[in-house]
Amino acid sequence: MTTTPTRPVHLGEPDGSPLLAAEELVAGYLPGVNILERCSLRVHRGELVGIIGPNGAGKSTLLKALFGLVTVRSGRVTLDGEDVTNERADSLVRRGVGFVPQNNNVFPGLTIEENLQMGVYQAPKRFAQRFAAVVEIFPDLGERRRQRAGSLSGGERQMVAMARALMMDPSVLLLDEPSAGLSPVRQDETFLRTRKINKAGVSVVIVEQNARRALQICDRAYVLDQGTNAYSGPGRELMDDPKVVELYLGTLAADVEDAAVRAGEA
Ligand SMILES: Nc1ncnc2c1ncn2[C@@H]1O[C@H](COP(=O)(O)OP(=O)(O)OP(=O)(O)O)[C@@H](O)[C@H]1O
Ligand SMILES: [Mg+2]
């Protein structure tokens, strides 16, 4: 693959119009300081799209900009073709966008069931029907519905947060590092659940620190660097791109061992 300034930003995307799109977003927290610099992303119906990139690249900021939690200074966010730039989060939830933030994503003083009730506070009559659907994906949560979320492990809290976002039956789910801080087994569970949710028809955008794993499960992924698009494409293609490997995926464990052996021999 040759690197040219005209390289398309959405390599490998399906035909048709996207469900959710960020077009050339400029956004930031402090006056005069832009974190996103013309950053773009598209998610088509049914897609599982990954966002990877170094710490501080702006991955969380991009999700927050999509969800109305950081002001977009220029550029556009569209949902099903409609302009929803800077629309409030509660309104986006009603329109079918779900968001699971990176941190502080459960109400620790509430039970699991109460946390899930918060997920449908805009439509409380739907609770029973959605609760039944969500505990099919997260059976543990049904069994432990009366337990306080504050007493759960990190992985269990992550499940509550994901389940809460699913309570409104979103068409697109934004997940910010759902596997962070979990053991490898729990991480795998999170990826499997994410796939299951996606296969059930929910489009998913997942920010992931475990870049290799993300590229394995995603249809397509975007690599962000310094607030803008660096690479994009089908996950497997990015994994095989030597430049992406060199810059963003680091050395394979096997290579590290080889290097250690060579260093030992030297
Ligand atoms: N609330 C905030 N106020 C001011 N600056 C912020 C705020 N949140 C993030 N930033 C800055 O925005 C930049 C991008 O942060 P962001 O959290 O989007 O990165 P990230 O790619 O999600 O990183 P990580 O992999 O560490 O989660 C960083 O320089 C960060 O310091
Ligand atoms: Mg982040």
Automatic annotation (TrEMBL):
CDD domains in the record: ABC_TM1139_LivF_branched
UniProt cross-references to Pfam families, sorted A to Z: ABC_tran
Domain ABC transporter: 20-251
Transmembrane segments: none
Species in which this protein is naturally found: Georgenia muralis
Family designation: Belongs to the ABC transporter superfamily.
Protein name: Amino acid/amide ABC transporter ATP-binding protein 2 (HAAT family)
Superkingdom classification of source: Bacteria
Annotated GO MF terms: ATP binding; ATP hydrolysis activity; branched-chain amino acid transmembrane transporter activity
Tagged with keyword Chaperone: no
InterPro entries per record: AAA+_ATPase (IPR003593), ABC_transporter-like_ATP-bd (IPR003439), ABC_transporter-like_CS (IPR017871), BCAA_Transport_ATP-bd_LivF (IPR052156), P-loop_NTPase (IPR027417)
Record key words, sorted: Amino-acid transport, ATP-binding, Nucleotide-binding, Transport
Gene Ontology biological process: L-amino acid transport
